[in-house]
Amino acid sequence: MSIKTIRQRGFALSIIVFPLMLFIGFVTHPNLLAMEPLHTVEQLVGRFHNNPMYHIGHLIVTFSVPVMMICFIGTMNLLQGKGKMYGFWGGVIALFGAFILAVDKGALCLTMSAFDTLPEDQFSDFTRYLQVIVSKEGLLFIVWLLFALIIGGILQTIGLMKEGVIQKWQGILIIVGLLLLANPDIELISSIGSALMCIGYVPWGIKEVKKPVANNS
Length: 217
Description:
Layout: H1 3-27, H2 41-48, H3 52-78, H4 84-115, H5 120-126, H6 131-134, H7 147-162, H8 168-180, H9 187-210
C-alpha cells in the first residue's frame, strides 16, 4: 500500500471516526439527562466519584484529539480553490483548539480518575480543594480557549461548502453541532451537537473512502 493511499484512507477514516468518538464520549456520561451547568464542587463530585463511565467517556474524547487533527490537516490540504483561505486559517485555529481540548481533558477530567482511587475518608478530606478546579484557577484559565476548536471547525466547514465538497445541509448540521459544543458542561447538549456533527461528517467521510486514490491531487 502506497503512502498516498495510506494518507487518503487515513484522512477519510478520520472524518468518520472523530465525530463518532466525540458522540460516544458524551453520550456515555452517567448523568446525561442532568441539564445543569457545572458550578460547584458538589456537582463535580457527583459526576465523577465512583462513576467509571465518566472517566472512560472523557478518555475517548481525549483520544479523539489526534484523529481530529488528522481531519483538520487533511482538510487544509484538500481545499485549494474558493475555500483555501477558510481551510488554512480554519485549520490553524482548529488545531490549536484541539490541543486545548487535550489539555482540558487531561487537566480537568483524567486527573479526576486518579483522585477517585483515594479511600473514602481521604477523598472526603480532599474534596474541598476541588473548588480551584471548578473555578479554573491558576493557569487553568487557558481551557477557555477551547472555543478556538469551534471557530476553526466552522471556518473549514464554510470552505468545504464553498468548494462543493459537502452539501449545504451537511455544512449547516456541522456548524450547528459545533456551536452546541459551546455550552457550560451540559453533556446532553454536547451529545446532540456531536450527533449532528456525525450526520454531517460521516457521509463525506464515506465518500472520501470510496474515492479512487488516483483522483486525489
